[in-house]
Fold:
Amino acid sequence: MSKITEALSMCDKDAVDPIVASLIEKEPEPLTRASVPATAAAPVREPRAIPPAPAAAEPPAPGSGAPIAARTCALHLPGFAPLMPFGEADWAAGEQYRMARTRIIQHPRQPRLMVITSPAPGDGKTVSAINLAGALSLMSEGKVLLADGDFRRSSIHALLGLPKTPGFADVLRGTCKVEDALIQVEQSPNLYILPAGEAWANPSELLDSAHWSHVAATLRSTFQYVIIDSPSIGVVADYDLIQAACDGVLLVLRPDHTKRGLAFQAVDSVPKEKLVGVMLNCVRERFFYKHHLSGYYPLVASTGRALNQKTVERGMAQDLSRRPPAGEAKCIPT
Ligand SMILES: Nc1ncnc2c1ncn2[C@@H]1O[C@H](COP(=O)(O)OP(=O)(O)OP(=O)(O)O)[C@@H](O)[C@H]1O
Ligand SMILES: [Mg+2]
Structure:
C-alpha cells in the first residue's frame, strides 16, 4: 500500500470524499508471490461514471446582454428625407445598405465601434449613419447603437423626431449616465439612439478626455455595433478624437458633391488599419452599369450597388468629368 493510500485509509472513511474513497478502494495491492491468489478471481467492480467536467462558460456575444433600462421613443421620419429605406417601395436603396451591412459583418477585422465621416459637409454622413444603423439592427441579434457625435451640427434627433437631450455631450460632461441618455426605438427594439445632447463646452474638449475612452469602452461592451455620426474630416478636431477610440472608419463620398482632391486627401488621412470601407452616396444609376466590380472594400450608394475601392477612384474621376492630373492619381489604400 502506498504511503498516500495508507494515510487516507487511516482517516475516518465516512469523512472521506466519495471520489477519494473510490481511489482508496481501487488502488491495487503490489503484486508479491505470496499475495497472488492461485485461483480466486478479483471481484469485478462496476466502472464508476466520472461526472463530466463543467463546460467552460461561453462569453456572451457583445450586445446580447441584459436589456438596457432606456427610455423608449417612436421614430417619426419626415417624408422628404431618404431615411430607413427598408420597405418595398425603396427596396433598391435598402438593398445597398443591406450589402454594406453584410460587408461590415463579414469584415476580417470585425469592427464594432465605427465612426462615419466624409471630406465635407453635406456628403451624406448623417443619412448614411442612420440607414446603416437601421440595416444592422434589422439583422443583428445584439443591440445596435446610433450615436450623434456631430455636436456642432447635430441632426439625428431632428431627422428621427426624437428629443435632443439628454445625450452624448451630457454623458461626456459627466452630468448623465449612458443609460439615461439612450433611447430605445419603439419600432425596432434592437436599435438604440444616443442623441447629441447639449454641448455647452467646446466639443473637442469634451472628447479630449479620459472619460471619452471610458464611455467608448462602455459602448463597446454594451452593443454589438456602434455607428457614430461625426463632423467632416479635417474641419475640427472632433472627428480625430472620436476616431481615436473607434476600431473602424466608414468614409462617405458623394460623387455629385465631394471635391475629388478632398476625397483623396480624406482617404489618405484615415488610418489604413481602420478604414472599413467607403460608401458612395447618391450615385447615379449609369455609374453602376459602367463599373460593376466586386472587391474587398464595401462601397454602397443610395441607388447603386456594392463596389470595390478602385471604383471609387474611377467613379470620383468620371463623375466629376475630369481625369486626374498626372502624378495626382492615387489608389485608395488596400
Ligand atoms: N442618399 C441620399 N438620397 C437623397 N438625399 C440625400 C442622400 N444623402 C443625403 N441626402 C441629402 O443631402 C443633405 C445632406 O445630407 P446629410 O445631412 O446626411 O449630410 P452630412 O454629411 O451629414 O452633412 P453635415 O456635414 O452638414 O452634417 C440632406 O438634405 C439629405 O437629405
Ligand atoms: Mg450630418
Summary: The chain is about 35% helix and 10% strand. The chain has two domains: 1-36, 71-319. Residues 125-126, 150, 153, 155, 229 surround magnesium ion (ligand 2) (CB under 6 Å). The mean pLDDT is 77.
